[in-house]
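Input.
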Amino acid sequence: MLGPELPKRGRAWLDCAEVRLPATSGDFRMTLAVYRGAFCLLCLALSGLTHAVAPVRGGDDSQPLEYANVAAFVEQLPKRKDVERLPLPTPPGMSLLQTSKESVETDPDYTATTWVLFTAPHALAPSVVRMRTAIGWDREHPFRRTRKITTLCEGSAATCDALAAQAKRLAAAPL
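Output.
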């Protein structure tokens, strides 16, 4: 028989199925149990790909993010001279940072950037929300403050969906 033989017993076919290949010197019997370890490793690697996908970026801001991943944001952003931590009470795993007053004053559009970093144990971890507000982006109404939001999510699909919903609510809130 060419192909796997399913066992008549109630065991899983991966554990005990046999493959018979025709050959000139007789039948070769190779059990799938020999290859089960490699198959399991392959399945583990492929299942890991569902969690190790590229970060999901969303929002309406076309300006590139400062860092490529959440870990770089957590490590590098607080070290910048033009960024300060906001002294507000936040839940565990949530950090608020924003551009310094001096940085905003020197920008021609008075752009203020706020970053919300989510790390474990927060439910939205690992992710980043960047919100930029400025006065000069809207050329038709030069004194109206406008806001642009970008998200970076490295969590599960459910986490990224929840983060996108939060960002959408934030974008809809009046300035």
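The chain has two domains: 3-51, 56-172.
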